[in-house]
Write a structure and sequence with these properties.
mainly alpha; 434 Repressor (Amino-terminal Domain); globular; 5 helices
Length: about 80
Amino acid sequence: MLQQYRFALTIYPYSLAREKLEEIRLIRLRENLSQTVFARYLNVTKNLISDWERGVKKPGGPALRLLTVIEKKGLQAIA
């Protein structure tokens, strides 16, 4: 799902892209993590996690890859 995130933002309407942003929050909540702890696992700032969840910014590069792994295999796959 998240690996298609960039494609969704460029091709699909805002509402569908917004659903992809909601997935980031749902992954974090599924793992029962605060934004601060989740940010440490992804090696980003808490503010960046917040920006992703609000749609201000979008994940890319290594962070997007880690999000995909966490989504499919859980946090233990990268811990």
